[in-house]
Amino acid sequence: MLDRVVRWARKRSPWLLHYNSGGCNGCDIELLDLLTPRYDAEQLGILKEASPRHADLLICTGPVTLKSREPLLRIYAQMPEPKWVVALGSCACSGSVFRDCYHVMGGIDRLLPVARYIPGCPCRPEATAAALKDLLESL
Amino acid sequence: MHVLQALGEMLIFPGALYGLIISMLLAWLDRKLVAVMQGRVGPPIYQPLADTIKLFAKEDLDTEGVNPTLAGLLPVVALACTMTAALLVPVGNHAVISFQGDLVIALFLLSLPTLALFMAGWIVPSVYNVVGGNRTLLQYFAYEVPLLLGLAAPAAFSQSWRITDLMARQAGYRWFVLGMPLGFLVSSMGLIGKLERVPLDAPHAKAEVGAGPLTEYSGRKLAFWRLTSWLQTVVGINLMIAVYLGGADRMWRYWGLGTYLLKMLAYLGGLALVQVLYARYRVDQVSRISWRVLVPLGLLQLLVTVWLGA
Amino acid sequence: MSPIDQVLELLRGQGAFHEPFEQIAGGDCVVSLEPSRLLPAIRRMLEAYPELHLSAMTARHDASGLVVLYHLWLGWGLSLRVVVPNETVELPSLLDDMPAADWYEREAYELYGIRFSGRQELSPLLTSQSLGGRPPMGPNRGGGG
Amino acid sequence: MSQITLPIGPQHPLLKEPMALRLGVEGERVVSAEVEIGYVHRGIERLMQERTYLQNMVVVERICGICSHAHATAYCQAVEALLGVAVPARAAAIRVLFCELERIHSHLLWLGVLAEAIGFTTIFMYAWREREHALDAMESISGGRIAHGANLIGGVRADLTPDLAIALGSALRTIEERLGLFDDLVERDRSFHRRTQGIGLMTLDLVRAQGVVGPMARASGASYDVRVDAPYAAYSWLRPPVPITEEGDVWARAWVRVREIRHSLAICRQLIVSLPEGPLAERVPHRVPAGEAVIRIEAPRGELLYYIQSDNSDSPARVKVRTPTLPTLMALKQVLPGLQTGDIATVVAGADLCMACADR
User: Do A42 and B222 lie within an 8 Å CB cutoff?
Assistant: First the structure.
């Protein structure tokens, strides 16, 4: 019973923390766009939080540059359980065009366990919203 | 019977349970109103409840270098103080406890959570928490005086510091807001500062200091702090309704509650409108405006009131 | 007198260069200079053209060594070309006369291994320490695509 | 008074992209500032040297998600200059159309970010709502909201058909109608003035010394705009007006940008009515003859410079990209000390940084 209540609440209150691990800005802007009037993710209970300590979902964009590695791991460690990582955009999923660059690791899953991959270059806010909703349903 | 009634008042209405429900409803309505004014849809009605349950079910990380007992105790103390204040301030025209000077005690109880919040920020060895905590304290010095001055005018006029007396003086729609608009505005600004709402939300301005004093807190502690802040909003609005808007006007038998709820919505709507229309003040701008504008205006109101009343 | 001729006149007065200019695709004029003449030439031009700014600095490899281009803007595009042999890889720093050169010089050091006299050991601007300090675009760059 | 270090970034709500500021703070005043970049450094310049000219069309659009078209335009122009190809008049006009739509969307985006930094979420929401119309217009023409793929080496891929022109016209009208709100904000709103006027002052000398370009420079009185000083594509006959002001504070930057949105709308409208007829693109060879090219164009943030060296093969020997954010960052380091901590967000957001551009 308690379990069901908690699950109900978790599905309806996903707070995001966004980290750009070296992406081109496109996905990041589209993610921010999700909060604005046309898409308004607050309907789904989604809030963008400022501190890793408050967040449930870590939304990562970018192909993980060598310099982003440390901050990314630190942010993930600071988040309280339960937590999920979402790879937003083709770069974050696989490295995309930057896969072989000398300063790029190529994909969030080289570092962190990824719960959802959202491909697209950049992915549209609709795609992000649908994928997040799908992730929440599956919890 | 007496004991049961007292218990009921403390735990159910207008005490803890009612306080929690109404504060969550108000928190939702606040977000919803702001969203609608910004051209968005806004969160569903159960949002604050879902947020709270989720936070309680989340891992509660202990921050390095912080005494866990103190960190856990501060939000509980803050919530307890706010709940006690809620018992002193009439809901509609129903006050659980009422005595001469309860207005001052209520204000004192309401300022304790602010100090606890400052402490909560100060004990964490993280820059954002400390800077946020400092700002909380700086702002506390700025808004507390206007808030007090603004509420002093009706008290001086009624020659009583008892909230129910103030309400009684306003019976028959002679609301103090009509006679003392300046005092109402000054104390409303003070209240916005106390609740750390836009435009006086510098202590937890996201773009500057993350989540301010609460940056490093997670899970249960964060949930307690959020509940405190929501309940403070309710108590603050109740206080303004009681002191300036005549409490619950009894038009006919059942209308008291209705007018009270209407006033509550209107006041909340006003707060939301201010949030939508203004950019944030810097902390130094807050103190400057407070001491150069709000305090003189509050004093003026007080003098005029005393002079007219005499 | 056309704008480029005025600049050439100015530089000739300094004895700063010997070659004629060339017009490259896209419209910029390129003037080649000896590395030792770079600083006097820049100083002279800063005096004559107050609105001059440094747009960018490009380094690249060539058969003759490392080629560094200083892309300037003085109402029209002018690039100064300096060639340093692969053995020396050192250029005078423009930092004192042109604060804008700061990060471009750091970047050139980091990506190409060019040293700038008058500046102490430059810290990497863009790349991570984990690259091991080897210039990723330098002549003997490491493997990988 | 003791000094504490206030680290901002790499993850911080103020920054949409990672960079790190290390600020020495005494009380509420900043006394020293260090800027660290490179978190978004992917090594694009070397990547481009390892890809063909054609493949690089995809790469350049992904240097930056905000000004993707500006990068593609500069790259195409450089390669076309090396090939000695002149693009058809219609293609030049459509390129400019996208440049201006991109400027509108970029400036509205910036206004929103600035508003959010000063706690004015309503303006953030409204600015981004209007920005959607510009994105819609670009999407309907090219098929991409952010990465448009509108350019080709030798011309453009996307055409402005008559029915698309009608849709574009109505999108422009919508933006224009709503723009009055932002005019009011900049001209009259006291709560906006209180947070932006006299903040983050950048003198003309600093602008010149650091080589700051674009709206940042024009807000400090510099008159440099590549579109006018060295016209390219269709700008040779469009001649956009250049708004300049001398205050040099965050407010001036907002004023310049809101003005520019208006001028961009006018250019778009002019292009709709006087779009030249003709083919969309020239056929070009894969192999580019040896040579060097320097191209400067006016991206939404200012002068964007591309240097390409070709060696008579199908991939470039050297590509250099200098983006306008780089000098802004260098200047920012000088502007931050002396500020109140409460103004850091305003100045950093007001600088319109694009780290993906700066780091490459």
Answer: no
Q: Which CATH architecture has domain A13-137?
A: 3-Layer(aba) Sandwich (3.40)
D201 — pLDDT class (breaks 50, 70, 90): confident
pTM of the model: 0.89
How many structural domains comprise chain C? Answer: 1
| Pairing, β C29-33 against β C53-62 | unpaired
**Predicted-complex ipTM score:** 0.85
- Rounded to the nearest integer, the mean pLDDT of chain B is 84
Domain D42-324 in CATH 1.10.645.10? The answer is: yes
Domain that includes residue C25, residue range = 3-131
Interface-testing mutation among A101, A102, A103, with chain C (most C C-beta atoms within 10 A) = A102
The overall longest dimension of chain C from CA atoms, in Å, is 53
Q: If interface means Cβ-Cβ distance under 8 Å, which residues of chain B face chain A?
A: 31, 35, 38-44, 46-47, 49-54, 57-61, 128, 206, 210-211, 214-219, 222
Read off the pLDDT of residues B90-130 as tens digits, 9 standing for 90 and up.
Answer: 877 677 778 888 888 888 988 888 888 888 888 887 777 88
Give the one of D18, D112, D145 whose C-beta lies nearest to A68's C-beta.
Answer: D18
Size of interface A-D (CB pairs under 8 A): 119
CB atoms within 10 A of CB B246: 25
Q: What is the pLDDT of residues D250-281, one digit of tens each?
A: 999 999 999 999 999 999 999 998 888 888 88
Over range D279-285, report the average pLDDT.
86
Query: Is residue B200 within 8 Å of residue B192, measured between CB atoms?
Result: yes
Three-state secondary-structure class, residue D35? strand
For C40-92, the pLDDT digits (tens) are: 888 888 888 878 888 888 888 877 788 888 888 887 888 888 888 777 778 88
Q: Nearest CA of chain D to the CA of A44: how many Å?
A: 17
Q: Look at phi and psi of residue A123 and say left if phi exceeds 0, alpha if psi is from -120 to 50, else beta.
A: beta
